């Protein structure tokens, strides 16, 4: 099996994630879509690492997983804080900052 | 089986080790029951000062650290020093910040130090992996800091917006890195450049897509148009000390890291990215300067001005030569001084008036509080590039670099952009000096409604005059903060609302920092040679152009 198929799959995942960020309105779903984008990058890293026979890409992917987890923790924390303030959980209604 | 320990260059890593230890210590000390705001902030200033001292000690070293993932040279150390300076000013501004009170001072300063640690790693990184770690270590604490004023919806909204946009930028960057890694066959910058040269990959589709995605991801981080939409919102919503840190330090370090990435690793594909980045620079200059016109919120105005300034600085990257790098470093140092000189009075006024960061908060400042008005005026004139300030010298070098690198049209864009920018900078300066102070300006921000307190307007102003004239411009941060302790222990927010009380003491430290930045802006504008030598020293340590 050729590496390019993995790259095509990862590009599709990235596109799905990116369109999700643009189209969905709930910050929770947007956070999920960002994870999808990061994992698309991970898949590309692993495929490349495999085809090169080089370990660096795998190490990179592991580190990215840790970083993605940190981002989700912070994101969920902010969403919970916003929910407690009775802010609408809809990014279209985030309107206190504009101009 | 024998164990051979790896060779660790503790001296070279010492600034990073100090900052890491500082994060832990400040966080722990913040949990102590007796730890007040001054304990944590003095400790944080101590950590920052130690890291700066170690960075100056390592100035002149050229080695690879941690198996070549970090590069110790003056370029990285210069960025680190600017970031440390910005962080120290932020700590001084945060001492009475409501957001820091709410979050706990230990946590607030530990997050700040964590972000500075990310900046140290990012500015030294010469490997895609360490670049990504540094960038995220820089960003994630900043997301929290932006949302740290949990009582204000605007702050939470800013944090969430920054998190979402920042993560999208990171993911785009990561995908670009994956493609670059896969095609060039390594994560090390030198090996990537070699892989591209040896494989004749300069026109390879995957490399070009990877470069474009990495550039996009970085453009999100340094707020280059058209990836800038978050900047004004986040600048406005975040607590003001955090905004000043974000504006200065993040931009500096992200630019230095892009210099390494683009000029070292992606140097062989320079022909493909320089035109695109040049166009982005001009778009940023246009969007930033036009967007800032007619903004009533000064923080929003500075957000748009930051977009325009990022466009100016990007021109130094586009020209791809040593003079461009030196011009960038000079301008980044200048930008730090000028921007902090504007932010410092803004923080002081935000706490004194009920207008938050609206332009009304500085109206009449020239008459009532000249020691806050002057730094702001000098900083704004510097950002506009008026001769006699360091901003003029910085723009001169950038234009010279652009013209020398056959990008004369960017030089023209910088000049036109500066002319447009005068319209909004002068509007703020006019508000400072030519408008009367609005009614209720003396009321503290917490009150919300505006109780009439006309006599309190003049009283703090006069006490301030006496107080801050004693601030020595050359004094160190450590000395500053310990000296101010006795005066401000009982100052509190309440003293401002008591008319006639000597409440001025509570922020003479802030006034002193503002005056220091403004004095440096003027000093390096008149005699730029020390800063020029410093920037040249840093620029020459990074030399991918010889090969």
Sum up the overall morphology of chain A in one term.
Answer: elongated
Helices of chain B, by number, come to 23
Q: How many domains make up the coordinates of chain B? A: 2
Second rung of CATH, namely the architecture of chain A:
Orthogonal Bundle
How far is the N terminus from the C terminus of chain A?
52 Å
Number of helices of chain A: 3
Low-confidence stretches of chain B: 445-505
**How would a textbook summarize the main sheet of chain A?**
none
Q: How many β strands of chain B by DSSP?
A: 2
Whole-number mean pLDDT of chain A: 90
Biggest interchain interface, per-side counts: A-B, 48 and 44 residues
The name of the CATH topology of chain A is Helix Hairpins
Oligomer: heterodimer
Structural class of chain A: mainly alpha
Cα Rg of chain A: 17 Å
List low-pLDDT spans of chain A. none
Structural class of the secondary elements of chain B?
A: mainly alpha
Mean pLDDT of chain B: 85
CATH class of chain A: Mainly Alpha
Structure write-up:
The complex is a heterodimer of chains A (99) and B (547). Chain A has helices at 3-23, 27-52, 56-84. Chain A has 99 residues and is mainly alpha-helical. Chain A has one domain: Helix Hairpins. In chain A, helix 2 (27-52) runs antiparallel to helix 3. The longest helix of chain A is centred in the C-terminal third of the chain and has 29 residues, at 56-84. Chain A starts with a helix and ends in a 15-residue tail after the last helix. With 547 residues, chain B is mostly helical. Chain B has helices spanning 10-31, 37-57, 74-94, 98-103, 105-124, 128-146, 153-184, 189-199, 205-221, 230-237, 240-265, 270-292, 298-318, 322-352, 365-368, 370-384, 390-404, 408-434, 455-468, 477-488, 494-497, 508-526, 529-540, and strands at residues 63-65, 70-72. In chain B, a hairpin with a 4-residue loop joins strand 1 (63-65) and strand 2 (70-72). In chain B, helix 17 packs antiparallel against helix 18 (408-434). Residues 445-505 of chain B have low confidence and may be disordered. The chains are: A mainly alpha (99), B mainly alpha (547).
